[in-house]
Structure to design on (322 residues):
């Protein structure tokens, strides 16, 4: 059954994740067409509200909405009435009065998507809230894992060994991905300095990347989220790279079917000192591409059950809304 909001992984659970992954397959097929556009969300309006910087998430939500023929509104927060002291609630209610079916919200404070869903009748999609959740990143990551492993003759998530490396503590990506992988039966290991682990563990952890590497199917690198760190958590960037970066030497020890992933933005020379373009296992570009299809799937799932003329919006046999 479709859900109303996607604020965190708990909004969808296992059944919802599997449904969204299958739906992403259909949307990826749409994306491969000469004209990658379908009328599935004609008459619907998606409003992008990004109170924090973004390249991938904002652009892919915008593209996803347009490929589904939805109308889009994007608030340029820096030149909006937020600068005159307008509250978040008044901003949301003002935009809703213009006719919004879904808010896509990124905010530096954890929990903001839940607050908006109390104030508004529109669907709410969390595009990243503080250190907390980034569920559409987890969905595109799961889809990338599933499709890239299938291309290499492997199936399913059960028993998959995923090492998430780096700044786990401040990472909403790690939080959502760990939760989603756990629901699907994968085993997650957090790897990084003790100072960058969350106070309440989300998964088993180690600070020995070299020992962990041999037992991983996926190496998922994170950047140091300096915008969320207000004290010295590692002795130096050089020391961090020496112990936790994917170096050419470490990359050379990975099995040929091991996937290397990164949500972006990447800090080359810090968490990765090898050129990912030279790694056969790197699927970092595919993650970005799959972000559009995954976000189309989410928008369709939340808004596409009934079209604006009262009929059902069809999904199936690779045809969406046609
Ligand atoms: N992965 C991710 O959320 O990237 P952006 O900050 O560029 O959206």
């Amino acid at each position: 059954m479709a859900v109303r909001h996607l604020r965190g992984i708990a909004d969808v659970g296992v059944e919802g994740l599997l449904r969204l992954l299958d739906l992403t397959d259909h949307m990826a097929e749409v994306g491969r067409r000469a004209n990658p556009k379908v009328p599935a969300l004609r008459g619907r309006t998606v409003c992008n509200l990004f109170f924090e910087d973004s390249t991938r998430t904002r652009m892919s939500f915008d593209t996803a909405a347009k490929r589904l023929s939805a109308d889009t509104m994007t608030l340029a927060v820096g030149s909006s009435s937020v600068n005159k002291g307008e509250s978040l609630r008044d901003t949301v209610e003002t935009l809703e009065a213009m006719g919004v079916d879904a808010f896509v919200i990124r905010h530096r404070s954890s929990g903001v998507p839940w607050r908006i869903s109390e104030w508004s009748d529109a669907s709410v999609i969390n595009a990243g809230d503080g250190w907390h959740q980034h569920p559409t990143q987890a969905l595109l990551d799961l889809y990338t894992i599933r499709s890239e492993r299938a291309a290499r003759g492997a199936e399913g998530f059960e028993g998959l060994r995923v090492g998430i490396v780096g700044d786990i503590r401040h990472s909403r990506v790690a939080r959502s991905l760990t939760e989603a992988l756990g629901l699907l039966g994968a085993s997650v290991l957090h790897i990084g300095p003790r100072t960058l682990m969350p106070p309440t563990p989300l998964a088993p952890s180690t600070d020995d990347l070299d020992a962990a590497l041999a037992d991983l199917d996926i190496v998922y690198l994170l950047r140091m989220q300096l915008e969320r760190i207000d004290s010295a958590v590692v002795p130096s960037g050089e020391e961090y790279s020496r112990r936790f970066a994917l170096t050419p030497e470490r990359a050379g020890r990975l099995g040929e079917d091991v996937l290397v992933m990164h949500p972006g933005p990447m800090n080359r020379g810090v968490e990765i000192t090898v050129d990912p373009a030279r790694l056969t296992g790197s699927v970092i570009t595919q993650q970005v591409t799959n972000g559009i299809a995954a976000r189309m799937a989410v928008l369709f799932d939340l808004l596409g059950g009934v079209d604006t003329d009262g009929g059902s919006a069809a999904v199936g046999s690779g045809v969406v809304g046609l």
